[in-house]
Design a protein that fits this description.
The chain has about 375 residues and is mainly beta. The protein contains two helices and 20 strands. This is Porin.
Length: about 375
């Protein structure tokens, strides 16, 4: 973290402490996760076995609420990345927003996860789309934090310029709607994003459907869309989960690419230990496009991929966990999916990536 960032963060923390009397609550929170990994790539010229320390989505944040009376409240959050392995980070380059909530739901504005991503992030993927085992290596076609038309191929996003509405919980049913304004408008292009989700959770069952639409991301007159379905069932110590996704891209108004992918996962937990497994498969691309989009190969080539991941957690306390993780991502000749949280540098189309890591996670 730069000296300027440290100064800003220190000032923010001091200001938050001073304002505790005025607000109902101001909380400093964080999550720190790092591991030692061995990763390699096979296929093509290959990537030799390499040892590395990886930061896994560590962050530091501050949030607060104020009671406005009549069932209404104001709330905010400021959150930034913390790169443990290299001493860097930012103050507000993760979910950062301000909003109002009341009897009819809540509205927030800022830089936030899309409902599409959030619909399966925690409820379905046992690795929370984190570490080399995260599902967003394939699901969503890779994670990207940014604004409209940036990272144009990604449907696994943290989005700038977004207005997000979250409905009240009605007998286990909750809806979300986000619209990202076209701040990146140019003389020929007006990109915008619409993301929605509907989730039902009660007792041991979770069901979700999410839809997202990107307008003019690849150029004027193009529309890309994603449909994602999620399901989870928990019985005693066992949780079984699944997700399916259809992505549609229009690199030009007259060409398109479609791709299906799905995930099956399970978590078994006993006392302070848990075992996690995940299998993801990306189907071959179809359509008439002539270029690959993100990790997806272009239609007509040998495309598709599989990822197998296994993890073990041992909780030392409610806040601290030791873990081990293994993941193998197998691309076919025409695809180039990569680990999403910490991609393997030098990875090429058709490569198989294999990694193993041992680490520690701490939250506060």
């Amino acid at each position: 973290m730069s000296t300027a960032s440290k100064t800003v963060l220190a000032a923010a923390v001091l200001s938050a402490s001073a304002s505790c009397m005025a607000a109902d609550s101001v909380t400093l929170f964080g999550y720190l996760n790092t591991d030692i990994e061995n990763v390699r790539g096979s296929g093509g010229k290959g990537i030799p076995s390499t040892w590395r320390e990886s930061n896994n989505l560590s962050f530091l944040g501050m949030k607060g609420t104020e009671d406005l009376g009549g069932g209404w409240r104001a709330f905010f959050q400021i959150q930034g990345n913390v790169f443990l392995n290299r001493g860097a980070g930012g103050v507000n380059d993760r979910d950062t927003y301000v909003g109002l909530g009341g009897p009819y739901g809540q509205v927030s504005m800022g830089f936030q996860l899309t409902p599409y991503r959030a619909s399966t992030w925690l409820p379905i993927d046992p690795f929370f789309m984190n570490t080399i085992a995260g599902a967003n290596s394939i699901m969503g076609n890779g994670f990207f934090p940014g604004g409209n038309a940036q990272g144009s191929s990604s449907f696994d996003r943290r989005q700038a310029n977004g207005v997000l509405y979250t409905s009240p919980n009605w007998h286990g049913l909750t809806g979300q709607l986000m619209y990202s304004l076209p701040n990146e408008k140019t003389a020929t292009q007006t990109p915008s994003l619409l993301s929605t989700s509907l989730a039902y959770q009660t007792g041991s069952v979770y069901l979700s459907y999410a839809y997202e639409q990107h307008n003019s991301y690849f150029g004027p007159g193009t529309t890309d869309s994603g449909h994602r379905f999620g399901i989870a069932y928990t019985y005693n110590s066992l949780s079984v989960r699944g997700a399916a996704e259809r992505l549609h891209y229009e690199p030009t108004p007259s060409t398109y690419t479609n791709r299906w992918a799905w995930q099956l996962a399970a978590v078994y937990q006993w006392t302070v230990q848990s075992i996690k497994v995940s299998y993801i498969q990306a189907q071959a691309a179809t359509g008439n496009a002539t270029v690959p989009i993100g990790g997806i190969g272009r239609p007509g080539v040998d495309s598709g991929a599989r990822q197998i991941s296994v993890g073990y957690d041992y909780a030392l306390s409610k806040r601290t966990t030791l873990y081990a993780v293994f993941s193998r991502l197998m691309n076919r000749a025409g695809t180039s999916y990569n680990y999403s949280t910490n991609p393997l540098p030098g990875s090429v189309t058709g490569m198989t990536l294999t990694g193993f890591g041992v680490g520690i996670a701490h939250s506060f």
